[in-house]
């Protein structure tokens, strides 16, 4: 690629040096890795939840302190998923299925996982903690580098391009989402895609179109679909502005389709999962998908509403969702860039993207209308995911603004700094007046005063930075300081403010805290084919996955709708309740569905009369049921066995036909004999006078291959309490058999009498079809490279 990017402006040597520079800068930001820490909030595992919190870890006497609880998805979703994929691949298997959550659901098709993303190779070479660290570090590194290449393509000089690269790579969106290892991974491709699109539009050379398709494919493989949608919007806007045509160029469409078809091996299974997931009906509930106008202050003061890392965030929503910060230095120079370089096409484009993004993410009639159309990924997506476009705009505009120092420093304007200072100081004065009025009132709300104090404190540094940058601009205007030195000073100021912000929010913890063994986890691991669930704050969602424990519950943005409906019915006791959202938690332990889903164990805590966890305490009243008996305990955490649970696989002699709604109602009916009568989409009866005698063993050969040895004295029906999902195939003694949806969400096959070996294998047609399309796309690229004449015609140049 370096050779292909060589042109009259950027040399290969420069590209290599730039990459080395951004690598060095990344190492500085992640300096704590040299202290033995990793960019993963493992402090949350051992410092916030049972059973780990009950033990001493490391040198901490009174417990491991938690820095930022908002980063919990890193340890409950992304790290476990990626580690599981690597473990399966190392066993020379395809990472298709996750049997440990939601009763089983797809792993490869999960958009949160990124199984085929190139940096997953790190997990095959290094240990998971090291591989994770390299993945996290790659995000700001590549985001900065890609932006640098784009700015150099715009013919900005080197230091200005470095400035813009730092803004995009270490600015608010990238650095806030970096430890989630999905959102920022996806967004880092926007600059390189615009670069390659523009290269093709200018030259019409095949190599740029193919590279565009390849990078689009890689972005899709990163998995975060809303950001991919926003990226495509930006690419369309660039095309329209560049060509001044609303009619799409067939060749440009071809390369977009080629990029998507290259990723079909992932897109097809992902589309299948999304289509039948709870995502199609899930909403945000009472939360708003938009940013309020008051959040625009975070362009100046990112911690105006506090910070999750310091435990004083008081704003609506999440700090990482509604923070637009790209740096005071970048904001001031962005305004300078708009004023002095308005006639430059990239400036107009970046400004349009900035305004368009605000229109999309800030609540207004148009944004609400577009949201209701479902353009961005359904009714459960939050529009703040478009915030990366704000960072992109600030990067481009800021780079143009600071380039004025090279071209005409005397034309630098003080007005942007003065405007921003006026806004910040005006808000500060308003807050001081409000605090004075409130404190004069004996009945004043102390919480509001506390919020004002937080905002006032967090306005101090931004105001200092505004003054500093404005004075440096004044000094540059009035003196003849070396231009490179001046730009370097501004870059240092930018690095200071962005690194301070990023290091404050992100957590670096010990790798020794990654899911350590406990007596509780060791006990549950003795029963790999029996499910468990837990009370709130005990084994939080998905944190059992690294121990290979199975549950009907889980937490994910996309999982099968029927599982969500089953969980909701169990919790509410009704068949007409709305499906469970992404938090697929089981809370009603008295529900018959708990028994019917092979939930054998409940992990709970004992509390004393003061609510503190104690071995001498008692479990919650909702668990004081006859069917639960205590079988193990340690340090106030206990394991209760459900004596009425159904086995993972069993035989029945009768099947009745029922609709989905009727099936749920029967499963909730305590009088229905589900152990002897199954519910499906057809009827079956053994028609035997003999009582059914069965002998079964259940074994998970691989994550996507189940083997059951079954023996019965009469014709019967085999029920397997694993999720019913497209792509599973059943084989009885090597001959394929039909799998029926059973007991609403599980599987069943008709089994003749006698001894049999029954196998269930997951081989989805969506994966096969996607693999064929991806393979054909690779062949097309090879043919294009061999026969490039048609695409290399210099037609329709701008």
TrEMBL record:
Protein name: Bacterial membrane protein YfhO
Domain of life: Bacteria
Alphabetically ordered keywords of this record: Membrane, Transmembrane, Transmembrane helix
Transmembrane segments: 15-35, 100-126, 132-151, 158-178, 214-240, 252-271, 322-342, 349-371, 386-405, 417-439, 459-476, 485-503, 769-791
Annotated Pfam families: YfhO (PF09586)
InterPro entries per record: Uncharacterised_YfhO (IPR018580)
Residues of the signal peptide: none
Entry keyword annotation includes Transmembrane: yes
């Amino acid at each position: 690629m370096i050779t292909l990017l060589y042109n009259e402006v950027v040399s290969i040597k420069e590209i290599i040096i730039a990459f080395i520079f951004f690598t060095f800068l990344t190492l500085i930001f992640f300096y704590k890795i040299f202290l033995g820490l990793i960019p993963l909030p493992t402090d949350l595992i051992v410092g916030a939840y049972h059973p780990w919190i009950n033990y001493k870890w490391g040198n901490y006497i009174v417990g491991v302190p938690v820095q930022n609880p908002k980063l919990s998805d890193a340890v409950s979703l992304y790290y476990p998923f990626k580690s599981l994929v690597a473990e399966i691949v190392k066993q020379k298997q395809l990472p298709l299925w996750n049997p440990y959550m939601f009763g089983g659901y797809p792993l490869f098709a999960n958009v949160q996982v990124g199984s085929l993303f190139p940096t997953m190779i790190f997990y095959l070479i290094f240990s998971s903690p090291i591989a994770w660290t390299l993945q996290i570090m790659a995000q700001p590194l590549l985001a900065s580098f890609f932006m640098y290449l784009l700015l150099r393509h715009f013919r900005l000089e080197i230091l200005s391009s470095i400035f813009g690269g730092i803004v995009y790579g270490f600015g608010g969106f990238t650095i806030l989402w970096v430890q989630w290892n999905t959102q920022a991974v996806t967004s880092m491709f926007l600059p390189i895609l615009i670069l390659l699109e523009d290269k093709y539009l200018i030259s019409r050379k095949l190599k740029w179109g193919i590279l565009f398709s390849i990078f689009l494919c890689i972005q899709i493989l990163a998995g975060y679909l809303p950001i991919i949608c926003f990226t495509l919007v930006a690419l369309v806007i660039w095309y329209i502005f560049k060509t001044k045509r609303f009619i799409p160029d067939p060749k440009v469409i071809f390369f977009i389709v080629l990029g998507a078809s290259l990723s079909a091996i992932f897109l097809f299974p992902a589309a299948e999962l999304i289509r039948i997931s709870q995502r199609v009906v899930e909403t945000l509930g009472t939360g708003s998908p938009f940013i309020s106008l008051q959040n625009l202050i975070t362009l100046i003061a990112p911690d105006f509403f506090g910070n999750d890392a310091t435990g004083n965030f008081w704003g609506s929503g999440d700090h990482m969702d509604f923070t637009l910060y790209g740096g005071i230095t970048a904001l001031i120079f962005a305004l300078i860039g708009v004023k002095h370089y308005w006639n430059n096409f990239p400036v107009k484009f970046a400004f349009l993207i900035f305004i368009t993004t605000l229109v999309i993410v800030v609540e207004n009639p148009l944004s609400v209308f577009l949201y209701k159309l479902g353009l961005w990924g359904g009714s459960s997506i939050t529009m703040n995911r478009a915030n990366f476009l704000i960072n992109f705009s600030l990067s481009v505009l800021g780079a143009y603004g600071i380039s004025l120092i090279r071209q005409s420093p005397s034309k630098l304007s003080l007005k942007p700094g003065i405007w921003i200072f006026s806004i910040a100081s005006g808000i500060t004065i308003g807050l001081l007046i409000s605090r004075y009025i409130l404190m004069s009132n004996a009945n004043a709300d102390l919480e509001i005063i506390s919020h004002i104090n937080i905002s006032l404190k967090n306005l101090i540094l931004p105001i200092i930075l505004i003054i500093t940058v404005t004075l440096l601009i004044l000094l540059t205007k009035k003196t003849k300081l070396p231009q490179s030195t001046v730009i370097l000073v501004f870059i240092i100021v930018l690095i200071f403010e962005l690194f301070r912000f990023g290091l404050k929010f992100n957590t670096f913890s010990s790798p020794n805290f990654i899911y350590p063994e406990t007596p509780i986890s060791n006990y549950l691991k003795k029963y790999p084919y029996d499910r468990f669930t837990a009370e709130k704050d005990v084994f939080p969602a998905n944190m059992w996955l690294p121990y290979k424990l199975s549950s009907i519950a889980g937490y994910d943005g996309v999982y099968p709708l029927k599982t969500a409906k089953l969980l909701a019915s169990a919790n509410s006791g009704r068949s007409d309740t709305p499906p469970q959202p992404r938090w697929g938690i089981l809370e009603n332990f008295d529900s018959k569905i708990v028994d019917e889903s092979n939930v054998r164990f409940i992990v709970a805590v004992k509390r004393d009369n003061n609510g503190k966890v104690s071995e001498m305490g008692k479990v919650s009243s909702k668990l004081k049921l006859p069917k639960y008996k205590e079988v193990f305990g340690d340090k106030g955490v206990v394991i209760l066995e459900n004596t009425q649970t159904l086995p993972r696989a069993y035989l029945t002699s009768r099947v009745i036909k029922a609709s989905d709604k009727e099936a749920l109602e029967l499963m909730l009916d305590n009088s229905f004999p589900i152990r002897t009568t199954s519910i499906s989409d057809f009827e079956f009866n053994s028609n035997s006078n003999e009582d059914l005698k069965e002998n079964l063993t259940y074994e998970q050969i691989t994550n996507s291959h189940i083997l059951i040895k079954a023996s019965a004295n009469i014709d019967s029906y085999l029920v397997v309490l694993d999720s019913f999902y497209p792509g599973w195939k059943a084989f009885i003694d090597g001959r394929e058999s039909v799998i029926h949806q059973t007991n609403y969400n599980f599987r069943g096959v008709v089994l003749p009498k006698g001894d049999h070996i029954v196998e269930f294998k997951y081989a989805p047609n969506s994966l096969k079809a996607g693999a064929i399309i991806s393979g054909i796309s690779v062949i097309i690229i090879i043919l294009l490279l061999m026969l490039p004449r048609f695409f290399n015609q210099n037609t329709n140049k701008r």
